[in-house]
Here is the input.
Amino acid sequence: MMPELGSFLLCLALAVSLLLSIYPQWGAARQDSRMMAVARPLTYGMFAAIALAFVCLVHAFIVNDFTVAYVAANSNTQLPVYYRIAATWGAHEGSLLLWVLLLSCWSLAVALFSRSMPQDAVARVLSVMGMITAGFLLFIIMTSNRSPAPCRISRSTVAI
Here is the structure.
């Protein structure tokens, strides 16, 4: 259940980051304050979805969920818990997801601490950060095998 939730959250984060890429930028071009005001809530949603997706991946490593191909390839039952947590970002998908999490943390920081900046500047900055995040998320989603084929047992390996 957790791996599926993590995949869903990544897709949700991609959708939110695409909205963040387009909607506030369009509002800044049209000088529409309502469209620009959506940048901060979209950033909060993007951060929440990415952070929860990362937590789902960490959980899969902690509980040794070997139904996830990434966990099966980068962990084993003999590793201490702190090594399993560190193995989360030890290969392609996990390290990119960590990068996306850090990028969304910076986006969140901009959204939280930019109250004194002009609204159109904040909307444009968050929009560009959403574009970069969307690119990374698209790369992660398109290059990761979220549903590998089940293990097949041939008759020659089964003792009869």
Remarks:
- DSSP finds seven helices and no strands in the chain.
